[in-house]
Specification:
Serine Threonine Protein Phosphatase 5, Tetratricopeptide repeat; Sig_transdc_resp-reg_receiver; 2 domains; Bact_response_regulator; 5-stranded parallel β-sheet; Rossmann fold; kinase; transferase; alpha/beta
Length: 206
């Protein structure tokens, strides 16, 4: 029987994961803080097979906990959980060997999907995490550009959107946002150009 450690300061998350994992035949241990998790890991030594780790916790962050886990010699897969995603968190956790990313709120089906990813080949796992990190970064930058647009910081919004466009030219929302930015910058020809591209995406159902 595989043993799982769930580390999260939110009781409902611990209960949800415990129920999901026990139904799948896992033995589940839970911790409501980083300190409590480290105490459990000291007792369990190397018998933990997988860890679900919340990034944002009081006193000790998930990133700090993950670093300690690795320093203790635990090489088991760690699934990062967060409702407050940032590019820095994704990068830091990737460097520390996180295996997957679980965005809150999540469903039992998503937990199942992540577990399946974990137990695929290392090559596929690495690819999956890299792709999810890129998607996360794109979402954050788009959200940032929308906020800048609302605040009237049109040049900053434009520069942010160009970064996203350079990495993913297939997201039609980017063209719509760039069109809006250009309208506010009185660049009406460019606004029309990007709006036309946006309409082409809609016409082709991409």
């Amino acid at each position: 029987m595989k043993k799982v450690l769930v580390i999260d300061d939110t009781k409902n998350i611990r209960m949800l994961l415990t129920t999901c994992l026990e139904l799948k035949g896992y033995k589940v241990l839970t911790a409501d803080s980083g300190k409590s998790a480290i105490d459990i890991l000291k007792e369990e030594k190397q018998s933990i097979d997988i860890i679900f780790l919340d990034i944002r916790m009081p006193e000790m962050s998930g990133t700090e906990v993950l670093k300690i886990i690795r320093d203790m010699g635990f090489n088991c897969p760690v699934i990062i959980m967060t409702a407050f995603a940032t590019v820095k968190n994704a990068v830091d956790c990737t460097k520390l060997g996180a295996a997957a990313y679980l965005q809150k709120p999540f469903s039992p089906d998503r937990v199942t999907s992540v577990l399946e990813e974990i137990f695929t080949s290392n090559e596929n796992l690495d690819k999956s995490f890299v792709e999810s990190s890129k998607d996360l970064e794109e979402e954050i930058l788009i959200a940032k550009s929308k906020k800048l647009l609302e605040e009237g910081k049109f040049e900053e919004a434009h520069n942010t959107l160009k970064i996203v466009l350079g990495t993913n030219p297939y997201n039609k929302e980017i063209y719509n946002l760039i069109s809006e930015v250009n309208k506010n910058l009185n660049k009406f020809d460019e606004a029309e150009l990007f709006n036309n591209i946006y309409e082409l995406f809609n016409d082709s159902h991409i």
